[in-house]
Fold this sequence. Notes:
- The chain has helices spanning 38-58, 66-76, 83-97, 107-119, 124-143, 176-184, 188-200, 204-208, 245-254, 277-286, 295-306, 311-318, 331-342; strands spanning 8-11, 16-23, 27-32, 215-218, 223-228, 239-241.
- The protein is elongated and about 80 Å long.
- It is mainly α.
Amino acid sequence: MSKRIPGLYKRGKQGIWHIDKCIKGYGRLHESTDTSNLKEAEQYLIRRLEEMRKASVYGIRPERSFRQAATKFLLDYQHKRSIDRYAQSLKILDTVIGDLPLRQVHQGTLDKFIQYRRKQGMKANTINRDLAVVRRILNLAARLWRDEYGLTWLQTAPLLQLLDCDDARKPYPLSWEEQAQLFGRLPEHLRDMVLFKVNTGTREQEVTCLRWDWEVSIPELKTSVFIIPGEGVKNGEDRLVVMNTQARAVINRQRGKHPEHVFTYSNGKPVDRINTKAWRRAREEVGIPQVRVHDLKHTFGRRLRAQGVSHETRQVLLGHKNGQITTHYSAAEIGELLEAVEKVSWSGNSTPTLTLLRSENSRKFPAVGRRKKACTD
């Protein structure tokens, strides 16, 4: 019976072999082999010892998989607001390129992933978000991440080309009639949420996460606003939410239902999304399956523009990044914003109708002098 290589120890109920070995001239090797098979564990240890020797003597980088790089990325950036989206992309990517060595991840090997996502019916913009995560990881591996030998994880990062977004869906602002029909088919808790959203221009996450301790009273104007902390806002800046008559009515209907969260289900539990089966079923019944939850924000913006509200004011009301400090508005400035949002509060025929203007020839000829551009996230 052959003697096992020194430095291997079994751990845990599953009997996984771990390495704990001091290597003269190279330091200590302490890691799991991820196997309970002794022969496989010994082969893994031998390979790691050879990698250490090559890296130390010849400057040859150890072979690392894309999965290892993705894991490091998620751990290093777990504090980022967008980490959940990154994790979602990497989970899908792992099934296609997770086992590939970093040096083999390039445009050619990613074509398989692109085709896989295309078959799933994904738009170019969605696929580009996934590719952007890959590009970010490869750039970090080539420029920032260094191992114990002072070597970067990757010698150079390959150039990745994003897809042309010629299949991007256009925004679909609702007409007042469509809004009435769509909202009328929604359950009460969902109807209040979308009514608040279309009257404030807030994003889905900003509505579902809205809390009572974010409400700020403005006694001079006999009203209140919400200040959403930057951690819950896409651009990272505090978000001022000014409410017109309809939005305030929605908020007042929620008072007393929950001590912390503004919007809840009928059973008192906080709501986690608007894009539910009930929302999608209502779209089908009304005959506008193309409308998305985010189109409610577009609807708010279009209605403001139709009422002649300035671009600067629309930026503030839509929560776009503009460098202003949202917690330092005067009562007079908030009064101007209130006046603007009241213009898009439902008041019968006083609100102008949105009309889509389209030339009959626009379908026949491409735009002159316009080049296709790749979408980025």
